[in-house]
Amino acid sequence: MANDSEFQEQMKRLGKLVEEFDRLPESAAKVTGKELVQLLMDVHGAGLESVMEIVFESAETGPALIHKLGQDSIVGSLLLLYSLHPDDLQTRVMRAVERMRPRLRKLATAVELIRADESNRGYVQLRLATSGHSCGSSTKDLRAIVEDCVYEFAPDVTTLEILGLDEPVPNGFVALESLLGRSLTAVGANLPNGHQEQRPRHE
Considering the entire predicted model, what is its pTM? Predict the structure, then answer.
């Protein structure tokens, strides 16, 4: 972690780089660069705003406050980006499982966490057991519930395998922007007893 003097030097260096960037001739790369910088500023600004609100409204201090910061979807995502999240992958996925249980129960489906392996690039394996798709539910509905919950609490998951789904699913990738949002646009590769999807890892 940089100390105060190092941080001030980094801020000065950042200012100089921005000035140099502004002097570059107009090009597609410059437009993209500006959009990238603005997006980063917006993302970090939203995170700082959420931190200030949580700290202002919270009665907790110390580890309890840090835990609360990690529970916030925006702040938690930023903490994950910098490997600062207070909870490990197993804990966050279990929280997602508890969140999805009531919704799946209404569809006569139970869920079990088989594996959450942080050392294996965020590999998670779940098993669904259904007594029949009630209320007109489908494999697509079940998969959507699982994905929404998992990526809400663990957007750093790179591989999600769901056992117990019968229908095949198309190939694709989850969008990178889901790290800071909850829109899931991707699905995964077919597996004999479920499906598996690959997601870009956020370093």
Answer: 0.65
